[in-house]
Predict the structure.
Amino acid sequence: MRLQNILISLFALYAIHGSSQDNDSQNFERHEMKVNLFYAVLESASLEYEYIVNSDFTVGLGASYFFDVSSSEFEFIAVPNARFYPGNQVAASGFFTELSIPFYPWDDRVYNRSTKKFEEDILIGVGVGVAAGYKLISKKGFVTELFFGIGRNFNNEINVELFSRFGVTFGKRF
């Protein structure tokens, strides 16, 4: 639980820092909050924040919590990402490509022969992934997007070597 509090605090600092760096002369709203509707099918909650750096580049952070651990290898995943939107008239809309670096804690149970008990340790795994998708934005600032990607886990102690990144999100730009 402490790890989740640390990640939430880092996310809040990230969002505050991003809004203080708003010195681009282009005039458009730069923040988006979205809910990944696809994850509701997997009995989980997934929120995403995206900061629009300029009209064709964004950085973001997604966080997913799985209520039913049997539907995922992990209980919680944080996914920082960067997106590139080539050639669109509306800032950060249309086709995009994404690079993500997911972090995921998991409980590692090891049997200690001297104490004859199982000991639990929380470890953090990391991976790297790519995705592509398409984002639509309404005149009122409502956003919907569809994306799919794949990545590789760099921790050999986890059963999952490859992972997928996918979503159908709905949110608001402000």
Summary: The first helix runs from residue 2 to 20. Residues 19-24 have pLDDT under 50 and may be disordered. The domain at 2-173 is CATH 2.40.160.20 (Porin).
